[in-house]
């Protein structure tokens, strides 16, 4: 079968399955990329009705309050008045496991926040780790397929300890940084109340003068960051698989509050190409000594859901849900998420999922969408189009809001970004750990990687060695004592 090559579902040969179609090397992704759209649309419909990823979650209601006006940086109204409390709903989750899986399995944790602002809903959808496995959404279906149970046996990954997971990771060098984070004790948080959250992707803030800056988001827990080691996490998976869910619920049920501080990093867009990495690459962090964290507000969770299904299970988040003053960057992973998340929700919950109470904005919604499954709105009149005169011209277009000028120019191409630099930050992260956490990282990697085939182990050792010679040597020693 040496001539077996990739094709689309129509049988058209796929000559590049690594990079989305963009305007220039680093420009935005094009909707005409039929291969990307086909892969994501098919992927979004692979599970009914459970979420494909982030299936098991826990949620809570609360509020967000900015410390001072962010007017110099953004015109987003919910970031202007310190006395204002913006309602929020937060859903924490595990990424790979099914709805019945254990809370303490090694896995990234979702950290999704829905802000019910006076300008509509704003969703900040992130994880508890600052980076991701891949930089291009075209690879997302492949990534998750390799993490999920095997298609022939349906045997799950069991904390990622199999050849399928490591096979994909070893052939995707950009994942090395994420692996150093995930296989540290950060991959098994002790509590949702005690883990950080990150937006992961790069966004833009725009002020009334139409000045734009890149931003990255960081949630800092008031209680600090606390983790479980592998042995504790494994024990709890058997004795109390809902440990993190129970901890969050019980804390709030007792009248306690769960608090996080929101910080942002900012970068002048003019300086993005001055870095030794691509700032729009989701496998990279921005060094905090060059781009310091700015505390901008706090979030307090103080109310449990009244019905798990109606709220936590039906909560639908999407990075496309932004408000004036916040814009999307050309981050290739983010651009794919903007399509994929909403498409998933339309499939999972139906085209009118935004009419569900947990997803409905707290402001009036005026548009001409009337039909489709589970329509629950109450409408009257003959007009369901715009422009019109029969309805007095209503609803008409809103006044323009400040947006940043954004010019794109380049040939349409599929290319990787130039500044990959996939190992430097992984090595720096390893060296930043104290000796105990380095020991735990090595132990966790070896415990999982030793179940993979030998050629896969060798590829991973090469990747770890490229990140840090000591890291590669210690993993080798662990695999072959």
How far is the N terminus from the C terminus? 38 Å
Low-pLDDT parts are: none
SSE run: EHEEEEHHHEEEHHEEHEHEHHHH
Class from helix and strand fractions: alpha+beta
The Rg value, from CA coordinates, equals 23 Å
CATH fold-level name of the domain at 21-147 and 164-170 and 177-363: Catalase HpII,  Chain A, domain 1
CATH architecture call of the domain at 21-147 and 164-170 and 177-363: Beta Barrel
Please identify the top-level CATH class of the domain at 21-147 and 164-170 and 177-363: Mainly Beta
Look at the structure and give the mean pLDDT: 93
Q: How would a textbook summarize the main sheet?
A: 10 strands, antiparallel
Specify the CATH homologous superfamily of the domain at 21-147 and 164-170 and 177-363. Catalase core domain
What is the helix tally?
12
Number of strands: 12
Task: Please write out the topology.
Elements: E1 21-23, H1 34-44, E2 57-66, E3 86-94, E4 109-117, E5 120-127, H2 140-147, H3 163-170, H4 176-182, E6 197-198, E7 203-206, E8 212-221, H5 230-239, H6 243-253, E9 258-268, E10 294-303, H7 309-313, E11 326-328, H8 332-349, E12 412-414, H9 424-432, H10 435-449, H11 454-467, H12 469-479
Antiparallel strand pairs: 1-12, 2-3, 2-10, 3-4, 4-5, 6-8, 7-8, 7-11, 8-9, 9-10
């Amino acid at each position: 079968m040496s001539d077996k090559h990739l094709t689309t579902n129509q049988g058209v040969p796929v000559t590049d399955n690594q990079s989305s179609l963009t305007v220039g090397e680093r420009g935005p992704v094009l909707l005409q990329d039929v291969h990307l759209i086909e892969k994501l649309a098919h992927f979004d419909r692979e599970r009914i009705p459970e979420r494909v990823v982030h299936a098991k979650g826990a949620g809570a209601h609360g509020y967000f309050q900015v410390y001072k006006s962010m007017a110099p940086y953004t015109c987003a109204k919910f970031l202007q008045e310190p006395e204002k409390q913006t309602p929020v709903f937060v859903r924490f989750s595990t990424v790979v496991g099914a709805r019945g899986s254990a809370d303490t399995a090694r896995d990234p944790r979702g950290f999704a926040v829905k802000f019910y602002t006076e300008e509509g809903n704003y969703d900040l959808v992130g994880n508890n780790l600052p980076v991701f496995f891949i930089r291009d959404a075209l690879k997302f279906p492949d990534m998750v397929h390799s993490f999920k149970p095997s298609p022939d046996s349906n045997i799950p990954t069991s904390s990622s300890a199999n050849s399928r997971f490591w096979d994909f990771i070893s052939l995707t060098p950009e994942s090395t940084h994420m692996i150093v984070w995930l296989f540290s004790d950060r991959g098994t948080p002790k509590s949702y109340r005690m883990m950080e959250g990150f937006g992961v992707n790069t966004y833009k803030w725009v002020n009334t003068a139409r000045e734009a800056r890149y931003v990255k988001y960081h949630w800092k827990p008031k209680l600090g960051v606390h983790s479980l080691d592998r042995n504790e996490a494994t024990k709890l998976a058997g004795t109390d698989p809902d440990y993190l869910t129970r901890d969050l619920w019980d804390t709030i049920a007792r009248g306690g509050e769960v608090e996080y501080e929101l910080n942002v990093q900012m970068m002048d867009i003019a300086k993005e190409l001055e870095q030794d990495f691509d700032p729009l690459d989701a496998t990279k962090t921005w060094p905090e000594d060059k781009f310091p964290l700015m505390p901008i507000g706090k979030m307090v969770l103080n109310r449990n859901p009244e019905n798990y299904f109606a709220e936590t299970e039906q909560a639908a988040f999407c990075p496309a849900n932004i408000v004036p003053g916040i814009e999307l960057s050309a981050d290739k992973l983010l651009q794919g998420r903007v399509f994929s998340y909403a498409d998933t929700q339309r499939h999972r919950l139906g085209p009118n999922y935004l009419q569900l109470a947990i997803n409905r904005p707290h402001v009036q919604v005026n548009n001409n969408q009337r039909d489709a499954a589970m329509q629950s709105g109450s409408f009257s009149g003959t007009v369901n189009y715009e422009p019109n005169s029969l309805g007095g011209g209503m609803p008409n277009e809103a006044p323009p809001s400040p947006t940043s000028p954004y010019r794109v120019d380049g040939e349409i191409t599929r290319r990787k970004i130039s500044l990959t630099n996939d190992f430097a930050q992984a090595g720096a992260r390893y060296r930043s750990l104290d000796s105990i956490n380095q020991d735990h990282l090595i132990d966790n990697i070896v415990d999982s990687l030793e179940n993979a085939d030998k050629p896969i182990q060798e590829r991973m050792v090469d990747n770890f060695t490229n990140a840090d010679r000591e890291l590669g040597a210690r993993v080798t020693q662990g695999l072959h004592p």
